[in-house]
Structure to design on (76 residues):
């Protein structure tokens, strides 16, 4: 499965962060688009890329949010 299809499977906030990052947008743009502090963007991208890597390896459990409790990452 290609990267874009894998990104489509992520929660909306993570997918948006990765798409903006892939498009070369800086952290300020990503933070504004998601309504989060700019300091949170590197961690969010790290989480998103980690989940993407796990999905690429066939680990659908990557879609489960273990410790997140906000709408940015798709947790309920």
């Amino acid at each position: 499965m290609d990267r874009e299809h894998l990104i489509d499977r992520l929660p909306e906030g993570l997918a948006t962060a990765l798409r903006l990052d892939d498009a070369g947008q800086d952290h300020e743009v990503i933070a504004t688009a998601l309504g989060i502090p700019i300091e949170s963007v590197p961690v969010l991208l790290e989480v998103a890329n980690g989940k993407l890597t796990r999905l690429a390896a066939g680990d659908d459990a990557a879609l489960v949010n273990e410790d997140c409790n906000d709408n940015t990452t798709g947790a309920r």
In short: Helices lie at 3-8, 12-22, 27-34, 41-56. The mean pLDDT is 88. Residues 3-63 form one domain. The chain has four helices and no strands.
